[in-house]
Amino acid sequence: MRKSILIGIVAAVLIAAGVTIGWIGIPTGGPALITPAALAEESNVNQAITDSGQAAIKAAIAKVGPAVVRVDVSGTVTVENPFSEFFGDPFFRRFFGNPFGDTPQEREWQGVGSGVVFEYAGEKLVLTNAHVIENADEIKIIDVNGNSYTATVVGSDELLDIAVLRIDGDTSGLATAVLGDSDTVEIGDWAIAIGNPLGLSYTVTLGIISAVNRDIAKPSGVGTYNNLIQTDAAINPGNSGGPLVNANGEVIGIN
Fold first, then answer.
1. Are residues 160 and 212 in the same domain?
2. Which residues are part of the catalytic machinery?
3. For residue 132, is pLDDT > 50?
4. What does pTM read for this prediction?
5. Higher-confidence position of 35 and 132
6. For the residues of the chain, what is the DSSP string, one character each?
7. Where does a domain end: 147, 167, 187?
8. Same domain as 184, residue 228
């Protein structure tokens, strides 16, 4: 008797569970089922967006890339004898003489940066950083085809770290870039950096605009750079002076 009662209870529980499971499995106005066809369509849309983005980036690079140049600079710097005070002492001169001499020596230095050619009032000029050409005695511009031009400084602004260079000679073969409006830049926009990092000519890196109106201290520790655009696109020594470009192929900043 007890055994039959237990069986009845188990059966009742199973039936109740079956009813409950059946009720859960019946859609009552819930979300529609996702079919394989719907998944395939969503995948195609995502791929189309990806392809469209890649096409836009490639088009932007092709548009501004030929206008990016390498900026080679060189000059001389006067170096004082760091031991002049030490060896200037009569006691040390008596025993060691003055092996380094008292006359300051001039040493040559070289540097490399980037720039971008633009047109203003019918003339082709180069935008770069002021610190790239600072104290340079000679400036050479190397275009994407390897052609070399001598350049001179039209003007520079240390506060903005911007310099404009005039190219000597025939500039008819130089491509020019379109200058965009940096005031329209928004966080999340595509950002393309083109330049010559570490001496590797015509290198392209890609990122987004990470922040705008950023203020940072100058490397010297004196003063600040204001209203800068921050990007996560890789920028290394040699990129300085190269353009930061949007997805439309317009220059929105100088790296």
1. no
2. 131, 161, 240
3. yes
4. 0.71
5. 132
6. -HHHHHHHHHHHHHHHHHHHHHHHHS-SS-PPPPPHHHHHHHHHHHHHHHHHHHHHHHHHHHHHGGGEEEEEEEEEEEE--TTHHHHTSHHHHHHH--TT-SS-EEEEEEEEEEEEEEEETTEEEEEE-HHHHTT-SEEEEE-TT--EEEEEEEEEETTTTEEEEEEPS--TT---PEE--GGG--TT-EEEEEE-GGG-SSEEEEEEEEEEEEEEE-TTSSSEEEEEEEE-S---TT-TTPEEE-TTSEEEEE-
7. 167
8. yes
